[in-house]
């Protein structure tokens, strides 16, 4: 299983903050998971934004980060704390 | 070293004092306090909601503080960030650093807030006269990291 987490503008737009996804070994990276989500349409295209940020198991990562079963993957807009 | 994420407000003066309290090796304490402004990007701001990623927030702040401790000889670090509903004039964030000499405390506190701005998972949503809006990240914040490379 992959636990998907969404935050801020993406969470609001997609009206969901998390989702459990079946692990698919064909998806080798976080970026490939992102592409599969974008292909859903209906708002998910937002994850194709050039500035999209992602985290794997609560560490920020690049879209090229390898994906493994059991991962928690988060997508979010650029952060604005402080 | 203390890292706190909380909804409640805080007393910056008390936090500054805590960095010195009965530690006679401390020669310098530097504190940064970030506040909610009542105006941003051409609109009046009536308040804001701060969202975060529980778990990752603490982890990200922890690695920023660890990195600062590796770069400078620090005696203490207090990092507090608020979440939830905030009103104009309220403090949002406190970064406090103590060290034997001033240079380390100045530089480390600057480093911590610069990294927090671009690496810690917080998002601000402002209530403005024109309705609620998510705050956009500023390129200046990303550029600010250049000086620490």
Notable traits:
heterodimer, A: 82 residues, alpha+beta, five-stranded mixed β-sheet, 2 helices, 20% helix, 26% strand, globular, B: 149 residues, five-stranded antiparallel β-sheet, 9 strands
Commentary on this structure:
- The complex is a heterodimer of chains A (82) and B (149).
- Chain A is of the alpha+beta class.
- Chain A contains two helices and five strands.
- In chain A, strands 2-1-5-3-4 form a five-stranded mixed β-sheet.
- The longest helix of chain A has 9 residues, at 30-38.
- The N and C termini of chain A lie far apart (34 Å).
- Chain B has helices at 12-20, 56-71, 102-119, 139-143, and strands spanning 2-6, 28-35, 39-40, 43-52, 74-82, 84-86, 91-99, 122-128, 131-134.
- In chain B, helix 2 (56-71) packs antiparallel against helix 3 (102-119).
- The A-B interface holds A 5, 7-9, 11, 51, 55, 58-60, 74, 76-82 and B 34, 50-53, 55-56, 59-60, 81, 92-93, 113, 116-125, 134-137.
Question: What is the gist of this entry?
Answer:
With 82 residues, chain A is an alpha+beta fold. Chain A has two helices and five strands; from the N terminus they run E-H-E-H-E-E-E.
Please specify the SSE layout and strand pairing.
The complex is a heterodimer of chains A (82) and B (149).
Chain A lengths: L1 E5 L1 H7 L3 E4 L8 H9 L14 E4 L2 E3 L10 E5 L6
Parallel strand pairs in A: 1-5
Antiparallel strand pairs in A: 1-2, 3-4, 3-5
Chain B lengths: L1 E5 L5 H9 L7 E8 L3 E2 L2 E10 L3 H16 L2 E9 L1 E3 L4 E9 L2 H18 L2 E7 L2 E4 L4 H5 L6
Parallel strand pairs in B: 1-5
Antiparallel strand pairs in B: 2-7, 3-4, 4-6, 4-8, 5-7, 8-9
Measured on Cα atoms, how large is the radius of gyration of chain B?
A: 16 Å
Low-confidence stretches of chain A: none
Largest interface, per-chain counts? A-B, 18 and 27 residues
**Secondary structure: number of strands of chain B:** 9
SSE succession of chain B = EHEEEHEEEHEEH
What are the low-pLDDT stretches of chain B, counting only 5+ consecutive residues below 50?
Answer: none
- Classification by helices and strands of chain A: alpha+beta
Count the helices of chain A. How many? 2
- Please tell me what the overall shape of chain B is: globular
Please give the largest β-sheet of chain B. 5 strands, antiparallel
Overall pLDDT level of chain A: 97
Radius of gyration of chain A: 12 Å
What helical percentage do the residues of chain A reach?
10-25%
The percentage of residues in β strands of chain A lies in 25-35%
State the separation between the terminal residues of chain B, measured CA to CA.
Answer: 24 Å
Q: Helix share of residues of chain B?
A: 25-40%
Helix-strand makeup class of chain B: alpha+beta
Distance between the termini of chain A: 34 Å
């Amino acid at each position: 299983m992959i636990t998907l987490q969404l935050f801020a503008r993406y969470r609001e737009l997609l009206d969901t903050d998390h989702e459990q996804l079946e692990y698919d070994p064909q998806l080798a990276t976080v970026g490939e998971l992102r592409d599969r989500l974008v292909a859903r349409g209906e708002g998910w295209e937002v994850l194709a934004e050039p500035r999209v940020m992602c985290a794997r198991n609560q560490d920020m990562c690049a879209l090229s980060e390898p994906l493994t079963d059991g991962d928690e993957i988060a997508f979010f807009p650029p952060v604005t704390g402080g | 070293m203390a890292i706190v994420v909380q909804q409640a407000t805080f007393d910056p003066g008390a936090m500054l004092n805590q960095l010195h309290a009965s530690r006679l090796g401390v020669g310098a304490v530097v504190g940064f306090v970030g506040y909610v402004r009542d105006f941003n990007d051409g609109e009046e701001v009536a308040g804001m909601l701060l969202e975060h990623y529980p778990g990752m927030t603490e982890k990200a702040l922890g690695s920023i503080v660890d990195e600062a401790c590796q770069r400078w000889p620090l005696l203490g670090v207090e990092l507090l960030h608020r979440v939830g509903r905030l009103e104009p004039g309220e403090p949002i964030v406190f970064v406090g650093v103590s060290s034997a000499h001033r240079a380390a405390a100045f530089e480390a506190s600057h480093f911590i807030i610069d990294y927090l701005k671009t690496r810690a998972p917080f998002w601000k949503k402002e209530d403005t006269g024109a309705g609620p809006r998510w705050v956009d990240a500023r390129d200046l914040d990303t550029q600010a990291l250049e000086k620490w490379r």
